[in-house]
């Protein structure tokens, strides 16, 4: 077994919306774990979105959600780590997101608060299988709750996400990062607790050297995931921005990249 710790993005890498994983991939993961491998899913989804999918397929292990802001055990729900952005910063980000005239969301304590219903918010809820708590004033909700915010998101036409993402990174790039887990969403998270941080955390937690860690993803929110000292792999039909930082480009999603890599290196 070349890699003791295998970290995979979910959507477009391991599975697809609304939560489908091919049975051959599930079998490969379970065989890898049976041999002693540590398998972790690293996603921008909420924990309450990804956990039921794992339980449905009988996949045990660790789930990293909100791009690194939360790390939990799938079976018990136990929290290994929880982070995010302070509520005052999150309120300013939410206000800016709403200024674009799009649906905006704030993930607080694994609950999604949503302002501005649209076809994109409805699609996002259906894909994640999570119903948002509607609010008339998202900024006020964030300020009144005074809780750490895992993620601020904006949902809109895919033709707008690149410009909005660039705008956020230009203004907040010193402490936050904006990227896209899917074409319709702009996700803003604390730069300190990104996917790279989460892999570093797990490697230390399980005492696995980086040369025995592999990570695979497909979208711009996986750039951090592939940017560490471990082996970073981009799915064959991944975003070009991700391919540029990858150590390896593997088969496209339709050819089950996670199963392919597990069989290539670990089984």
User: So how many helices?
Assistant: 9
Q: Whole-Å distance between the termini?
A: 7 Å
Order of helices and strands: EHEHEEEHEEHEHEHEEHEEHEH
Question: Care to count the β-strands?
Answer: 14
What is the radius of gyration? 17 Å
- Inertia-based shape: globular
Describe the strand arrangement of the main beta sheet, using strand numbers.
5-4-3-2-1-12-13-14
Question: Describe it for me?
Answer:
- The protein is an alpha/beta fold and 267 residues long.
- Helix content is 34%, strand content 23%.
- It is built from nine helices and 14 strands.
- The chain has helices at residues 23-34, 47-57, 87-98, 119-128, 138-145, 158-172, 195-205, 240-243, 257-265; strands at 5-8, 38-42, 62-65, 70-73, 79-82, 103-108, 111-115, 133-134, 149-155, 176-179, 185-190, 213-217, 231-234, 248-249.
- The protein has an eight-stranded mixed beta sheet with strand order 5-4-3-2-1-12-13-14, sandwiched between helices.
- α4 (119-128) links the parallel β7 and β8 (133-134).
- α1 packs parallel to α9 (257-265) and α3 (87-98) packs antiparallel against α5 (138-145).
- It is globular, with a radius of gyration of 17 Å.
- The relative contact order is 0.18.
List the helices and strands and how they pair.
Layout: E1 5-8, H1 23-34, E2 38-42, H2 47-57, E3 62-65, E4 70-73, E5 79-82, H3 87-98, E6 103-108, E7 111-115, H4 119-128, E8 133-134, H5 138-145, E9 149-155, H6 158-172, E10 176-179, E11 185-190, H7 195-205, E12 213-217, E13 231-234, H8 240-243, E14 248-249, H9 257-265
Parallel strand pairs: 1-2, 1-12, 2-3, 7-8, 12-13, 13-14
Antiparallel strand pairs: 3-4, 4-5, 6-7, 6-9, 9-11, 10-11
Helix pairs in contact: 1-9, 3-5
